[in-house]
Amino acid sequence: MDASTAIAEQQTGQPARRNLHRFANPGRFLRIAARVQPYLTIPAIVLTAIGIGWGLFFSPADYQQGDAVRIMYIHVPMAWLATAGYAGLAVASLLSLVWRHPLADMAAAEIGPVGATVTALCLATGSLWGKPMWGTWWVWDARLTSVLVLFFLYCGHIMLIRAFDDQERGYRAGAILALIGVVNLPIIHFSVQWWNTLHQGNSIGLTGSNTMSSRMLWPLFLSALGCTFGFSAIVVGRLRAAVMERRLRGLLLAQAERAA
Amino acid sequence: MINPLQYDHLPFIAAAYALFFGAVLVFSFGTRARLASVTRRLRAADPRARQKEAQS
After folding, report:
1. Which listed residue, of A121, A217, B1, B45, carries a Cα 20 to 30 Å from A86's Cα?
2. Are residues B9 and A248, on separate chains, in Cβ contact within 8 Å?
3. Predicted complex ipTM
4. What interhelical angle do A72-99 and A214-259 show, nearest 10?
């Protein structure tokens, strides 16, 4: 047991194995993250390449939508990651507000821009799919509008954490906004059931209620899995950079104080 | 194997994939560049790291 783990046990009275703060040591985090990074990056490249390659070159066209259905192999993974990324942002915000986990604030700050980008990609690819199929780029139906609200929530979080001179206050305000925004996640998921929408209903269900051919389902699954690994790899890489930037700021500040 | 040039609605499919791969490239190379830059600056600012490098 190293010194930081022993101190954490003394402070909390809990065994270190159950103590989230043992991962808060920046040096330890950097060591673990550097080791984990290739295990996220390599599957991301391989699975996404197989999924998208299969979807573009080998899976059949849809009997109604023709080849436009191939946009699905990136649109659905982006939609999944937009909501899953926000759930991750909310968990990081909860860890920050309740347990004051030192890395949680930084994790939330680094998830935000990646999540906002995948949500924008979900909206843009959906629009590019909608134009040839629906005859319009956009409709204000419940699914599209709730995803647009999700995009605004991500943007609001990014701006709010940078809106205060005191960074801690910014992180706290951002965490509160992120937790309030969680109410939008079930609205997005159930929007196609609760309201009449132009957006189609769910084609994939966890209870085996799939209405999609396995020749489309497999490439979609691989693409979604690969994109999930890619999202995680980018967030872990950004978080490593953020931890090192904080360490650098501390070092430069200490040097400036010694020089003064 | 299907020839993508024969897709119907090809411009829409091409635009969607171009956006996706554009974002992937920006984020992967952006993150790599950010990591490389902060690692270099940290080595320059941290006397212990410089000492370790000199010893090795």
Report:
1. A217
2. no
3. 0.88
4. 40
